[in-house]
Amino acid sequence: MKFKTTQEEISHAVAFVFSAIEPRGTMPILNNVLVSCEDGKLTLTGTNLEIEKSIVIEVESQVNGSITIQGKKFSDICKSLDKHSDVAIEVKSDKATIKSGRSKWTLQTLPALDFPSFSGHKNEIYASVSGDELIKSIDKCSSAMANNDVRYYLNGLMIEVDNNKLTSVSTDGHRMIVVESECKSNSDSVFQSIIPRKSVDNLKSVIGNAEEVTINFSSNSVSISVEGKTMLSKLVDGKFPDYRRVIPKSTNKTVIANTSELKAAIRRASILANEKYKGIVMFISQGSAIIKASNPESEEAAEEVPISLSGDDIEIGFNGDYLANAINHLEDPNVTIKLGDSNGSALIEEGNYVAVVMPMRI
Question: What is the value of pTM for the model shown?
Fold first, then answer.
């Protein structure tokens, strides 16, 4: 195998697939990047057996072939090269030689045939959605995804496709975020899948600035392809909770406050909250909300925010970080929070965005 390209092209491509590689993989081949050159097209692939990322770039090829190169060394070499420099890569026997200017590296390789393929994916359901809308959904939902929860089905993003509506949902059992987007799909019934957390973290690098993204689902995997970049991921095998039942149906109190003022007050009060639980108490009455926090060191914080209240006064506790984060995704200058009693969840809605924050006993 022998080809030429530029530092910018190869560095970007290697970095893209290297993000799918586990830094301490138990199998040596999983530390490698699969490099395949055929008729002017170079395909790079990285995998950890749960996620596979590949990218295709154009190169000046002289000899076709396939090999695998240790990913970190390959990535570090490409990043170290002068920008706008040319790069030549040649493979002979079991050695890969990388040349650029006066620099030269010779690396050990492993056979391409030993590289594991991501088999079994078959497109069944597809959804085509705006790239910008999908990135916004990921950004809003990411914070509410569980991390290493024993309820494994919470450790990811649930995607629901229902005709021309794509709904993204995440929850860690203490809060929930729901974002709806318009889409085009071939689904004639409700289809749900759970994308693992690590795959969700990688999605944005695939989407980039693409105007439209097509997501292809099978029963146990998902595929996303954009402008020469592809990511395949296994899905979480489990049933996601019925998120519609979590959204409060009966609320009799409505709080309206300035979004930035309320968020800042919660953040400031939370500085002296218990470090583990971040609990705050809100004393809400007509005209103002007093936000208090304390910790085991007998330190206290208090903030007062002007509000408008429809309904009776209420005293209610929340995790300050969760409530501030739910407010943080709002674009309107004023936030509307709907409440029931002190044991009920807070409901925050804006356009296609819904956040539910469970109360805390403090």
Answer: 0.91
